[in-house]
Specification:
Structural class: mainly alpha
Oligomer: single chain
Largest sheet: none
Number of helices: 4
Order of helices and strands: HHHH
Number of strands: 0
Helix content: 55-70%
Shape: elongated
Strand content: under 5%
Radius of gyration: 21 Å
Length: about 80
């Protein structure tokens, strides 16, 4: 359970924040600007997820190509990251 929360903590926090924002903005006869603000919050979290989530790099599966780049006279930046 802890690993599930750790891996998807952004999604969980975003859903909780969206739910709280929806409760605050969309109760007591909301107006169009309340819907607009709620939509902006949702779109902001979706955009943040697409911009910030980790993705595979093109050379991730080709260790021989990476080894050939190291020491070939050009600087090589190695980035190690977990998928979450």
């Amino acid at each position: 359970m802890t690993s599930l929360i750790n891996q998807y903590s952004f999604i969980a926090a975003a859903l909780i924040f969206i739910a709280i924002t929806g409760l605050i903005l969309l109760t007591k006869s909301p107006k169009w600007n309340d819907y607009l603000a709620f939509g902006a919050v949702v779109i902001g979290f979706v955009a943040a997820w697409f911009v910030l989530h980790p993705v595979q790099t093109p050379l991730m599966r080709d260790a021989q190509a990476v080894r050939a780049m190291i020491g070939a006279g050009k600087p090589v930046v190695l980035e190690f990251q977990s998928p979450y």
